[in-house]
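user: Please supply your own:

assistant:
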Amino acid sequence: MSPPSSPDPGPAPAASPEPSPGNFRGRILVVDDNETNLLVITRLLRVLGCPIDAAENGGQALGFFAERRYALVFMDLQMPVLDGVAAVARMRAMERNRGSDPVPIVALSAFVPDSEFASLRGAGFDGALTKPVNRQALLEVLEQFTSLELPDAPGRAIPLAVRPPGPLDASPRDEHKTVPPRDAIEVHPDPEFMDLAPWVVSKLTERLEQALGQVNRGEWDEVRRLGHDLRGEGGTFDLTGLGELGWDLRNAALERRGADALRIAREAIDYLARVVFV
């Protein structure tokens, strides 16, 4: 099942503070090894009229950074090939070598300990957002670090020492819903991402089924990475219970608790089987 493509952005809703295309000057680089996170963040940015490039790891991001000039970079911290901290160090070295002004770089991560927030600035980052990315927090970052003006948006700075906002903003729902089975789990993702939801459930179910074998083979890095992704994607699509299970799976993988990891993975598969998007 392939992910739905992001439609061409249309005019922003009248009731929203989002600007129409053309209000943004510059280009944005988004770097994340998680396909869903890339789809979500780039879709929100395109709606705002922001030209973007998307990279799946730090190595690919360096190629883009060497060839183009950016107004802002969103950089995931944990990635294969080259992680976010190492990629940013090389980007800062590139800037020094070519004598260019430093580009604002904002860290992205589903989980960042308080101690790591304090160290990010020294590693070359200018700000941080925890995933799932909050629509309003994204707007505020754009206003803080770029030429985009959002006069109605509350707040400005997103200090590294303070955790950013959590789940995506709520939106009005249709009052006429189909009555789900009694054991179903009703979830309410942002309407902007409703077309992605079935694909996400299918993809995560497949990965969880693969994780059963990975646990038995001792492939703990893969299991830990899945737990990390479940936590982030669970928040994006209002799958609160899945996010909690993802956190538990991550911890079980770190501590190599095989029986617990298998139990948690099966619970997550069952959770996804009962999800109904409304």
Q: What stands out?
A: The two ends are 21 Å apart (CA to CA).
